[in-house]
Amino acid sequence: MKLVTLATLALLALLAARSRADEVYDNGPVNGVFGAWGIVPGFSVSDSFTVSAPTALGSATVGLWADSGAPTTLDWSIGTTPFGSDISSGTATSLDNVLLTTGYWDIFETSFDISGDLGSAGTYYFTLSGASDGVSWDINNGPSMAYETPYFPSGTEGASEVGSNSDSFQLYSPSSVPDRLPTIWLALGSMLVLAAAAKPRRADC
Predict the structure, then answer these.
(1) Nearest residue to 196 via CA among 44, 25, 11
(2) Distance between first and last Cα of the chain
(3) pTM of the full predicted structure?
(4) What domain count does the chain have?
């Protein structure tokens, strides 16, 4: 019985590892009260984030407000300057939306794949824009510095720097475990379970 339990726990650990990704940066959870910056076509919001060592990005989770159903698409970019895309950029069309609250605004925690290699420690910028109609990025006043389009250099008329009115988001590295467990692990796990479940034979005296 102990062998069965150990084998089962080993398989569960492998399954859990499939979906585990390391968190690169956390700007805080969804607030849902302070407000939200519009990120529909023609509007863009950029938040700073810092990393302490070179790393890669694989996914993001953000808080979104929507007035006409779940978000369906948005544009994202990673850059070394506000609104920059010199690291990576793309359009997310496979959004994993979790409805948190409903009302005049439906508020979602939305996850999607991104990419980008951050070659050194330092400050970078995560930008969202081009979202489906009626979608805004939740403000939670996290530690990030936020910018809103249009962007002008700080100190000029129309400067878009908005200080700590930054947005809810987390950035993650790619999972260190493949999306699908290798066949050899499944086979080995099955053999362990079968071997552990087999009743031992009693030796004849």
Answers:
(1) 11
(2) 25
(3) 0.73
(4) 2
Residues 193, 187: Cα–Cα separation, whole Å: 10
Same domain, 152 and 63: yes
- Strand ranges inside the chain, DSSP E: 23-26, 36-38, 44-51, 55-66, 74-79, 88-92, 96-101, 106-118, 122-129, 135-138, 146-148, 169-172
pLDDT given at position 175: 77
- Tell me the C-alpha distance between 24 and 171, whole Å: 5
| DSSP 8-state symbol, 86 | S
How many angstroms separate the CA atoms of 196 and 205, rounded?
A: 24
- Same domain (yes/no): 105, 181: no
- Asked if 133 and 187 sit in the same domain, the reply is no
pLDDT recorded at residue 186? 41
Q: Which residues of the chain have pLDDT under 50?
A: 2-20, 152-159, 176-205
**Residue with tokens 């939305």, as numbered in its chain:** 110
pLDDT of amino acid 149: 80
Q: How far apart are CA 35 and CA 96, in angstroms?
A: 22
What's the pLDDT at 165? 84
Report which DSSP code applies to 201.
Answer: P
